[in-house]
Amino acid sequence: MTEATNYILNRGTSKGVHTLDKIRLLLEEFDNPQDKIQTIHIAGTNGKGSTTKMLAKALASKNKTATFTSPYIRRINEAIAINECNISDDEFVDLVKRLKKPIEMLDNKGYYLSYFEVLTAMAYIYFYEQKVDVAIIETGLGGLLDSTNIIKKPLASVITTISMDHMNILGDSIEEIAYQKAGIIKENCPVFIYPNDSVAMGVFSKKVEDTNSSSFTFSKDEIEIKQADDKANIFDFRNYKDVKLKLLGKHQIYNACLALLILDYFKKDFNIDEKIIKDALENTENIGRLTTISSNPRVIVDGSHNKEAIDALIDTLKSFSYEKLIIGFSVLNDKDYEYIIRRLSKIADELIVTSIDNPRAFDFDELSDITKEKFKAAITIEDNKKAYEYSKNICGRNDLVLWCGSLYLISDIINYQSED
């Protein structure tokens, strides 16, 4: 398994101009499995993972339901799953072996396939061969040119919240980013859209009109929030009353309403009812999103890594009780690090800066210097395992430790806690 994983990961990111040509050529070698399965395709800046988990939990009650998600937290197998069971090591290794020859053939012709393109192809092949009833597919980055967008006609396209992220690739305005996300909207397919700002919604409306699609959205005024604290979320939305969520944070209520919109639309097609839907939402978990990984000391992790996500995290923390807040973080170099540091420094009693083992990671010394400009007492520990141990050691009985800033960092922290 290690050899297969390394083979995939070592392919790195795309080289040259990014198009869908490479994955199209690869999947043609396997007779285009992506066009032989039913898919729900999800794009957006934040909320993709939680929305996917909610949809999958409900649909899997009566259907063989696949998910393709990223990034993974513990093991690469998590990216490809059916009914919440990850692809096995043997199945993963077998797929890699079968893909190697066509990949190398394309490499030699100048079509170098990236890590994510290969993983996407593996997912489509696996889901087709496993005869899934429906596959929920998350984009990796953007939408228009994302390798998952090789699908010709999904059952539905879904767009979650849009905010400024990956500007170096997707554009430096909401309009440009929304245009990339809208790339998953296909001819005559229903589109479910989170209520974004007017600029983004204008972009989506135009794409819906151009593709003769039908769109569905909601207003936050339609939601009655009955409870939103560190224990649970409870709310009413349209005909759904007293919906409970295990996922914490008011933003998860809005993600849940998007999921409800989709599930209600498809409930007859997939033989699910209101009870199944509500039970599924109540039991949905999404590790790495406001997840408690230790109760003594109390440690939560959250993969917030952009402005919108950090704002949602800080808003949610208002409902948590603690004496001292200890925050550990690091970010990738393509994120709005100044905003993240500024916001975290205002709420932290102790701020710990560490590193991430990733090619896009921020230079540790530079990040430390920038952080200390905003929070002079910041602690800098380059080894993130030692940084995590330090955060737990200084945590008092009524204190709270929060780790955030990057899902890659959160993955490491969760794995360290699992070792204890």
From TrEMBL:
It is an enzyme of class 6 (ligase). Keywords: ATP-binding, Ligase, Magnesium, Metal-binding, Nucleotide-binding. It holds the Pfam family Mur_ligase_C. Signal peptide: none annotated. Residues 42-262 form the Mur ligase central domain. Belongs to the folylpolyglutamate synthase family. This is tetrahydrofolate synthase. It comes from Anaerococcus nagyae. The lineage of its organism: Bacteria, Bacillati, Bacillota, Tissierellia, Tissierellales.
